[in-house]
Amino acid sequence: MSSTEIRQSSQTVLVTGATGAVGRHLVTTLLERGVAVRALTRKPEDAALPEGVEVVAGDLGDASTLGAQVFDGVDRVFVFPARGVDVFMDAAVAAGVQRFTVLSSLAAAMEFPRDHGSASQLHHSAVEAAVTERTAGWTILRPGTFANNLLEWRFQIRSGVPIRAPYVESAQAPVHEFDVAEAAAETLLSDEYVGQIIPITGPQAVTRAEQVATLGAAIGREISLSEITADEFRSEMGQYIPQPIMKMLLDYWSDTLVTPDRARPVTPVTGKPGRTLAEWAADHRTDFMIV
User: Fold this and answer.
1) Residue 262 has what DSSP assignment?
2) What is the H or E stretch that residue 171 is in?
């Protein structure tokens, strides 16, 4: 079925994780293309999704909530990598859903030793398996680090406190969540990508120091950055970041000090170059403004 054919059909695309960063953009993108959208969320009353979206209550990991109200008329599903995806997939396949686009992580590719056994790899590999073991109608999106991760610096930037960070000269290629959403829409609206695993990063590797400077340019003031050691970061942030996540982050930043992220933007799927970090910072400017 081509994208034109699905737009003209009576089929509905089900979006799980519809209130997340990628999900919200995906919902909007599908609506703009004339596609009927059903959003699955545990709290419909808090969803605040655009007019025209059919919002239904349900939990991916609770089979009792995944009835006809979720799947009737649905042919294609965007699978958010929440816990309980195996339960959801059993219900979706039993209901006759044939096509799935899965949000995963580049860590699941296990391209680097740091990925093997990391928190992200273990989780996302299990999500991928829950889908690929139950259907042949899958497409997997594997984004690298999200630019949204920079929102972790909101408090420091808003309050004027210096950012304290290790490995400030390591270089990552943060991806804009809208690029991932547009890639998801393309793969949902066409069968061209069935059976494909698609890596996605931002269009350019940028050092962490440059990332801070980019945020500063977006809000119109310099942001103070102080480089600290990995041990100092563990000591300062250990009470907030679980140990497996801490190890994953430090390994990633350490590795990309030597080998920067390889840019793999969404161009092959969307035909666009991918949004830069400066564009992301401009889109999220108000998140970092002093209130």
Assistant:
1) P
2) strand 171-172
Tens digit of each residue's pLDDT (9 = 90 or more) over 128-179: 999 999 999 999 999 999 999 999 999 999 999 999 999 999 999 999 999 9
Query: Cα(149)–Cα(253) distance, rounded to whole angstroms?
Result: 13
Query: Mean pLDDT over residues 199-217, rounded?
Result: 98
What angle, 0 to 180 degrees and rounded to 10, lies between the N-to-C axes of helices 177-188 and 21-32? Answer: 50
Q: 182 with 270: CB under 8 angstroms?
A: yes
| Cα distances (Å, whole numbers) of residue 26 to 14, 33, 201, 269 | 11, 11, 17, 15
**Residues forming a β-bridge with 74:** 12
Question: Backbone phi, then psi, for 181, in 5-degree steps?
Answer: -65, -40
Q: Are strands 99-103 and 74-79 parallel, antiparallel or unpaired?
A: parallel
- CATH number of residue 103's parent domain: 3.40.50.720
Q: Which residue range is the domain that position 192 belongs to? A: 3-147+176-201+262-274
Spatial distance between the Cα atoms of 90 and 63, rounded to a whole number of angstroms:
9
**Could you give the CA distance from residue 189 to residue 27 in angstroms, rounded to a whole number?**
13
At 7 the pLDDT is 45
Tally Cβ neighbours within 10 Å of residue 192: 12
Q: Structure pTM?
A: 0.94
| C-beta of residue 46 within 8 angstroms of C-beta of residue 24 | no
Give the number of domains in the chain.
1
Q: What share of the chain in percent tops pLDDT 90?
A: 95
Query: Mean pLDDT score of the chain, rounded to an integer?
Result: 94
Distance of CA 235 to the CA centre of its chain: 29
> What is the DSSP secondary structure assignment for residue 138, as one 8-state letter?
E
Residue 251 lies in a domain: no
For residue 201, count other CB atoms closer than 10 A to its CB.
24
- Specify if 284 maps to a domain: no
